[in-house]
Recover the amino acids of this structure.
């Protein structure tokens, strides 16, 4: 077997990179074993020329046998097959015509159904739009009511806050006067 790289040069390179001679030789021998194992696996799957020629001859003999069988079939049964083929063609044309008629009927029915569904969908969309508009109006009314109520509560809170501040000031002034 040939190795496609210089093992001694690889050992020297490994030694330059800091490996000892023994480590370098072990690494290179492991690489050689791996390559040999891979080559063995590859060689097992390969076919020799002799085996290839034998297989080619077998295939050629099978092809010759099939050719002979085809010639015999062509002469004996070809006319029967041709007449049967013509019958099948006629039947196929009749079936094709029936299928085309059925397809035309189904298309017409589908167009009618599709138009009915389109009108139903349009009506449903119109109803949904009306319901959505009513809902929007209700929401706007409720939001306006809530804003009004919020403003009212805000004013009440300001009144109570002002009263509380004035009360605290009055009490503070009273204490101030007592102290003075």
């Amino acid at each position: 077997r040939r190795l496609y790289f210089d093992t001694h040069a690889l050992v020297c390179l490994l030694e330059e990179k800091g490996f000892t001679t023994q480590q370098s030789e072990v690494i290179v021998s492991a690489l050689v074993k791996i390559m040999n194992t891979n080559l063995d696996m590859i060689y097992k799957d390969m076919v020799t020329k002799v085996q290839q020629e034998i297989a080619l001859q077998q295939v050629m003999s099978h092809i010759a046998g099939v050719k002979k069988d085809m010639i015999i079939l062509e002469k004996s049964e070809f006319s029967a097959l041709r007449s049967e083929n013509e019958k099948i063609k006629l039947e196929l044309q009749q079936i094709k015509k029936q299928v085309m008629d059925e397809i035309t009927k189904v298309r017409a029915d589908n167009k009618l159904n599709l138009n009915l569904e389109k009108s139903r969908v349009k009506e449903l969309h119109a109803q949904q739009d009306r319901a959505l508009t009513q809902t929007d109006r209700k929401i706007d009314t409720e939001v306006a009511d809530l804003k009004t109520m919020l403003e009212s509560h805000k004013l009440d809170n300001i009144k109570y806050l002002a009263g509380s501040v004035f009360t605290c000031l009055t009490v503070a002034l009273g204490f101030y006067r007592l102290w003075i």
Summary: The helical segments are 7-16, 21-45, 49-179. Residues 47-178 form one domain. The chain has a mean pLDDT of 90.
